[in-house]
Design goal:
The complex is a heterodimer. Chain A is an alpha+beta fold. Helices cover about 55% and strands about 15% of the residues of chain A. Chain A has two domains: about 1-350, no CATH class; about 365-469, PH-domain like. In chain A, about 30% of the residues are buried. By secondary structure, chain B is mainly alpha-helical. In chain B, a hairpin with a 3-residue loop joins strand 2 (about 65-70) and strand 3 (about 75). The chains are: A alpha+beta, B mainly alpha. At the A-B interface, strand 3 and helix 5 of A face strand 1 and helix 2 of B.
């Protein structure tokens, strides 16, 4: 529980920090824009805009401070019921994400309205698109090729040639998780790499050489970030595959190496992004003929709406390494709506699942030649033919158990488990309660069940024994 | 060379692309032998249909400003190849456009010297 508390508390602070860096800290006039609105430097320096931005700074500070604190406070619920904590945490997360985006978009719109009202440059609604022919002509020659990901995919697939790996995949319930994650992440990075390489280049200057240099630097760094991330993902899987190939088991050290290697892409990506930003600023300091294309009319509500642009994904104004959809397209509306519904649906589904795990009691009933075990995670029905033996134990056999699915907290052990020596089993157990009923089956392995009511386990054992006779 | 296209303007986009490229060649922003983006690349950058860019490139090719090569894509032609083509149809076209511009300038109150100065300034900007 303490570990869980720290994981979530640090995650919340990390999320709040990233949101602040991406959405909360856009208060400086750069590249001819303030808060994503193109205005002249003189307007940005005016008293009116300074007061406006000061008010925004205070609101932002207040929002992030209170939400950061709330993010830590909700983590204390973890010491009570996990399901209650998850529900409150999900509500906090949705409120925080929606609030941060709303705060930014509302302020952006207000500044855009002010620009139109004051008649600052571009306020008539410029619909100019610009392209540097030199940059566009070299687009295909920038950065590493996305085909590199095929090599890493092949490395993952080649591990299936090892008989040890194949045996583990066939016999273990969770065996496919690692290669599946490896393949999906590799394909994901490949697709993202391909999209980034095809993304429209940005024009910063009338000087084509500078435009080429900045776009080349960005695409080269992005492509390296994608390729190295894909490489560490493949390496993480190969470490696991090599161990399970030799031992038909996964130890904690291999798990730890896997987690570290899978975390590296995140660190690498953030590092690349920060370096890219620094490098871009340095390069643009030499920009003697800046060129600002005012496309604010398409972004006035905070999202992109341009019916004459046939692109589906466009670079986001608030975060240059993020992509958003062109809401003028029906497909984009469906995609965004579906993504929102899917996200909220997943959160609700997780909350319901956890609520059931916490508040559904473990019960065993026996009728018509069947034993049925119900719990908050899953139910299990065993026919009397499948039962080999039944006995009452003081505790589960000594072994190192890994949870394959279900739940494993300080109150209950529910679902499929795998013991290093004893192999697969099912557990429907309240932690700290004895005795334990062990139903031996060939299909499921041993099934362990217990009860909070004294004498109930012995009663179950007696009834099942009678049923078997 | 930076092409600026007004997506909501009255002039068709392919004509704007053609005009911007001709201006770029005239100003020396793109030199003879330099590659232009492929039809697909330019369409992707502008977020427009490939047919629109293709139409602009065909127009430029027919007017002798660019040549297309299967391997190199669109390449800007040398200006010396264009210089002999002043006579005939082009002269007629130039006279017609100048007549229209002069009429509009006069109607809007520009005097002859101002008009000539503007023409001279625009012409001086052409570095080829």
């Amino acid at each position: 529980m303490m570990l869980m508390f720290w994981i979530f508390a640090l995650t919340d602070l990390f999320v709040a920090g990233i949101f602040y860096a991406v959405y909360g800290g856009k208060r400086k006039y750069a590249e001819g824009m303030l808060l994503g609105v193109h205005i002249p430097q003189s307007a940005a320096d005016s008293e009116e805009v300074k007061v406006f931005m000061e008010r925004y700074r205070k609101n932002t500070k207040r929002f992030y401070l209170w939400n950061g604190l709330a993010g830590i406070v909700v983590c204390f619920l973890n010491f009570w019921y996990l399901s209650v904590f998850m529900i409150v945490w999900c509500v906090w997360l949705v409120e925080f994400c929606a609030g941060a985006v709303y705060l930014l978009c509302r302020t952006h719109r207000k500044l855009y309205d002010l620009k139109v009202e004051r008649g600052w440059v571009g306020s008539a609604g410029s619909r100019i698109m610009a392209v540097d022919t030199k940059v566009a002509a070299q687009n295909g020659k920038m950065g590493l090729s996305p085909w590199w990901h095929l090599l890493f995919l092949a490395l993952i697939l080649i591990s299936f040639l090892d008989p040890g790996v194949r045996r583990y995949l066939q016999t273990s319930d969770d065996g496919w998780t690692f290669p599946l994650i490896g393949i999906l992440v590799c394909v994901g990075f490949g697709i993202l790499h391909f999209i980034i390489m095809r993304t429209r280049n940005r024009i910063y200057s009338e000087d084509s050489e500078l435009n080429v240099a900045v776009n080349r630097m960005q695409k080269t760094l992005w492509s390296w970030a994608m390729v190295v991330s894909s490489l560490t993902n493949a390496a993480a899987y190969l470490v696991v595959a090599s161990y399970i190939g030799n031992h038909n088991w996964l130890n904690n050290t291999t798990y730890a190496i896997y987690i570290v290697l899978q975390t590296l892409p995140g660190v690498w990506m953030i590092g690349s992004f920060l370096y890219m930003r620094y490098k871009k600023e340095k390069m643009l300091e030499k920009n003697e003929e800046p060129l600002y294309i005012d496309d604010d009319v398409y972004w006035k509500n905070g999202w992109y709406y341009n019916p004459s642009d046939k692109r589906f994904f466009v670079q986001d104004w608030a975060c240059s390494w993020n992509y958003t959809t062109n809401m003028a397209k029906t497909g984009a509306k469906i995609f965004t709506g579906a993504a929102g519904v899917l996200t909220v649906g997943c959160l609700i589904w997780i909350c319901v699942l956890m609520w059931k795990i916490d508040f559904t009691p473990i019960e065993l009933t026996q009728r018509d030649g069947y034993v049925q075990i119900t719990s908050g995670y899953s139910d299990l029905t065993i026919s009397s033919d499948e039962i080999e033996s039944v006995e009452v134990l003081d505790s589960v056999p000594e072994d190192r158990y890994n949870r394959i699915n279900g739940s494993d907290d300080s109150r209950q052990l529910l679902g499929k488990f795998k013991g290093r020596e004893t192999g697969k089993c099912r557990m429907y157990l309240y932690v700290g309660y004895e005795p334990i009923l062990a139903i031996q089956t060939e299909k499921y392995g041993p099934v362990y069940v217990n009860s909070k009511s004294p004498g109930e386990v012995e009663e179950w054992c007696e009834k099942i024994t009678q049923m078997m006779e | 060379m930076v092409l600026k296209i007004d997506m909501s303007g009255a002039i068709p986009i392919y004509v704007q692309i053609r005009n911007e490229i001709v201006k770029g060649i005239g100003k020396g922003d793109v030199s003879a032998g330099e590659n232009l983006p492929t039809v697909r690349q330019l369409a992707s950058e502008l977020g427009i249909n490939t047919m629109t860019v293709s139409k602009a490139y065909q127009l430029l090719k027919s007017e002798g400003f660019i040549e297309t090569d299967r391997r190199k894509g669109a390449v800007v032609k040398g200006t010396h190849e264009l210089k002999g083509s002043l006579e005939g149809l082009y002269r007629e076209k130039l006279e017609g456009e100048l007549e229209l511009l002069s009429a509009e300038a006069k109607l809007r109150g520009l005097d002859k010297q101002e008009f000539i100065d503007l023409c001279a300034s625009a012409f001086a900007g052409m570095e080829v």
